[in-house]
């Protein structure tokens, strides 16, 4: 009897099968192995969960700082791949995350000023 995969397993399996088929057809060998790809995927998932939690609880200073650090790490990672290691070309696939991280950092730094001021104004409203 065949085992039925869950939807998540099926989508992950089809995603990896499509990537394997594309590389086989193009004859391109990827310098990234499966472990590196899964680690990067988990990092992406973790940072997106942290960012969503920060959007839900924007007044949590600790979570706000952790979220800011995720953008700083992403910016540092893509800049180092582009300029230090030379493993990435300045294409849309690299420039888009650089722009998102840069604008997010700027926005969060502006928001950080209001986050510091906000609890004082909230306390005045309560009194």
TrEMBL record:
Assigned GO CC terms: endoplasmic reticulum membrane
Bilayer-spanning residue ranges: 12-28, 66-88, 94-115
Name the UniProt record assigns to this protein: Ergosterol biosynthesis 28 homolog
Annotated GO biological process: sterol biosynthetic process
Keywords, alphabetical: Endoplasmic reticulum, Lipid biosynthesis, Lipid metabolism, Membrane, Steroid biosynthesis, Steroid metabolism, Sterol biosynthesis, Sterol metabolism, Transmembrane, Transmembrane helix
Family: Belongs to the ERG28 family.
Subcellular location: Endoplasmic reticulum membrane
Main location: endoplasmic reticulum
GO molecular function per UniProt: protein-macromolecule adaptor activity
Membrane topology designation: Multi-pass membrane protein
């Amino acid at each position: 009897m065949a085992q039925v995969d869950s939807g998540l397993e099926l989508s992950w399996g089809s995603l990896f099968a499509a990537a394997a088929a594309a590389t086989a057809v193009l004859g391109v060998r990827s310098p990234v192995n499966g472990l590196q790809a899964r680690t990067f995927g988990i990092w992406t998932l973790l940072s997106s969960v942290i960012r969503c939690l920060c959007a839900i609880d924007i007044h949590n200073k600790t979570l706000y700082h952790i979220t800011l650090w995720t953008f700083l790490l992403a910016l540092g990672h893509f800049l180092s791949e582009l300029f230090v290691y030379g493993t990435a070309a300045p294409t849309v696939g690299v420039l888009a995350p650089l722009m998102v991280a840069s604008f997010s950092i700027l926005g969060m730094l502006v928001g950080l000023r209001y986050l510091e001021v906000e609890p004082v104004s909230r306390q005045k409203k309560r009194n």
